[in-house]
From TrEMBL:
UniProt source species: Acidimicrobium ferrooxidans (strain DSM 10331 / JCM 15462 / NBRC 103882 / ICP)
Domain of life: Bacteria
UniProt-recorded name of the protein: Amidase
Length: 402
């Protein structure tokens, strides 16, 4: 890990130029990582799924006709697979990891950066499950999480979210939820009669609506206003019209991330000018950059813990483009930092949120808004954060299908 390299530098086990080379190599290593997922499809099941494509979901069958890829380790009768079937999903094949990464690890301490944990998260999160135009889903583990690439039925992806800002290859134009039960809340009305996306809250199926929402990302330093900003304002206005209190939380959430991004840029600047600097200057610059990054992460973690408990949910921008496009959730906050090892590790350990992306159509573009449901500080990032917070209120009010 990069901090181990710094330790080598401090104890003179490596020279400064070696540190720079090693740091840059590790920053780029994940970009070369091969796709860790293999898929086996059942042609007959695919035809069945295509025949059911477009079936209107209902409260009892919110996944009606949605094709599902099941983790190869799970049997058809196993809990999460049976639940997917009972909610209307069609199992069209099996998926497994080619890297032996195992199930998603728990992310216990947002203040600790652990390289092996983050690497396993990256492998297990499955960033590429999109086969042509066929809508697919993934049920990866016993947590009940699944992934859907289903633009034809109004979904882009329903998938594991071990962190909020690190999903760099998400499909667009649809709902994103963290778990199967969260999906049942989110998939109430996928399209209006004319086939256009609607602005939805992820709470409608559970007959529960948030009363106080934090709005994150209305103002980002150094960035011109875009259509995504207009969508965010539109979403906040729609919620306010429904009586939901919307409060800006940019200061609490964005400032630490910009510090982290600036630290990354400082490292890049040091690395690209290493031949023009003395060993001591290079070493000092690297240490300063990573100390700043670590401080930024700790500050962000503290702010998240403090602010998260004050709201029912968070509203944040999502860079959602046309159907099938590869976009980066939270790009306006983290810029390119989530494509690096440092960025991914920090994001994976920091984020204690689960996201639901809501499609909003403006003209010929499909934009999106994310509702980030807050969790308790000790909750693991891959768990059903939204369900944990909302379920007690919902279950007290009425019976739900799962």
């Amino acid at each position: 890990m990069l901090f181990e390299v710094l330790d080598d530098l401090v104890h003179r086990r490596r020279c400064a130029s070696e540190v720079v080379v090693a740091s840059r190599a590790q920053l780029r290593s994940l970009e070369q990582r091969p796709d860790p997922i293999a898929v086996s499809l059942d042609d007959a099941a695919l035809e069945e799924a295509r025949a059911l494509d477009g079936v209107a979901p209902s409260p009892s069958r919110p996944l009606a006709g949605v094709p599902v890829l099941v983790d190869a380790r799970l049997s058809d009768g196993e809990g999460v697979v049976a639940r997917a079937r009972s909610l209307g999903a069609v199992v069209v094949g099996r998926v497994w990891s080619t890297t032996g990464s195992g199930p998603l690890p728990a992310l216990e301490d947002p203040g600790v950066v652990d390289e092996s944990c983050a690497t396993r998260v990256l492998d297990a999160a499955v960033s590429r499950v999109a086969l042509g135009a066929v809508p697919l889903a993934l049920v990866p583990d016993a947590l009940g999480s699944l992934r859907v690439a289903a633009a034809d039925v109004g979904l882009a992806s329903v998938h594991v979210r071990p962190w909020v800002l690190g999903d760099a290859e998400r499909l667009s134009d649809g709902v994103v939820a963290a778990t199967l039960s969260e999906t049942a809340w989110a998939i109430d009305v996928l399209r209006d009669p004319e086939g256009r996306g609607r602005l939805l809250t992820p709470f409608t199926l559970g007959q529960w609506r948030p009363t106080r929402i934090g709005v994150w990302g209305r103002v980002t330093p150094g960035r011109a206003r875009t259509d995504e900003d207009a969508v965010l304002d539109e979403a906040a206005s729609a919620l306010e019209a429904d009586g939901v209190e919307c409060i800006d939380v940019d200061d609490a959430f964005c400032a630490p991330w910009w510090s982290l991004v600036e630290a990354r840029r400082a490292l890049e600047a040091i690395a690209t000018t290493q031949t023009e600097r003395t060993a001591r200057e290079v070493a000092t610059g690297i240490v300063a950059a990573f100390v700043a990054a670590e401080n930024a992460v700790r500050a962000a973690s503290a702010r998240v813990r403090r602010v998260a408990g004050e709201f029912d949910a968070l509203l944040a921008p999502s860079t959602v483009g046309s159907s099938g496009a590869r976009t980066r959730a939270g790009e306006v906050v983290v810029t390119d930092d989530d494509t690096t090892e440092v960025g991914r590790v920090h994001v994976a350990n920091l984020a204690k949120l689960a996201a639901t992306s809501i499609p909003v159509r403006r003209g010929d573009r499909s934009l999106g808004v994310e509702f980030l449901a807050t969790s308790e500080p000790r909750a693991v990032a891959a768990a059903a954060c939204l369900a944990r917070r909302v379920a007690p209120r919902v279950l007290a009010a009425r019976a739900v299908p799962w």
